[in-house]
Design brief:
About 20% of the residues lie in helices and about 35% in strands. By secondary structure, the chain is of the alpha+beta class. The protein has two domains: about 5-85 and about 185-190, duf1285 like fold; about 85-180, no CATH class. The strands form two sheets. Strands 8-7-11-10-9-14-13-12 form an eight-stranded mixed sheet. It is globular and about 55 Å long.
Length: about 190
Amino acid sequence: MDDIVKQALAKWPNVPSCTGWLMLDRRGNWRMRDEAAQASGAPGVPIRHEALLGFINRNYEADERGQWFFQNGPQRVYVELAYTPWVVRLSAHADGTLALHDQGGGAFEPAAVFADEDGGILFADRSQPARIAVLHDHDLEIFSDHATLADDGSLSGAFHWSVQRTLPLQSVRRDQVAARFGFVASPAAQV
């Protein structure tokens, strides 16, 4: 968390939280949702300002109930999650190594990989509790180039992360991801 944010929290400790105004979409874009977007269920307008994106990413965390928020100075802005609290991009380097990075650009080291019933790929890391991230859909081809899928039509198989590490591909139901990984996708009703 930025020092300026910590100072604002100390100076104004009782600023009410807000909900519904910020969303992390399925592709890792932060979106600002005005009242009209909230009322219609629209995702809102993508935030493109690099300094603001950096500020959001540095001050993004979860509370004790698994509700993700952006600490905007003294105000906690709870985030609507289109799927998971993290979205990762997968890249393959010329030497054959793979890398995962989250929506803020941070490295993401996978410990487990899952496939949901819609073909979405999710990665969990080794942190406690585990961070769960959905793979950006533009990177599914890279994933499939490094995966071995079962011939029986099930969502099982293996993901070859490196020469030394192969992760079994586990199935997960999309509607169970939040409960399994301890986060709240829509904190508006719970704040």
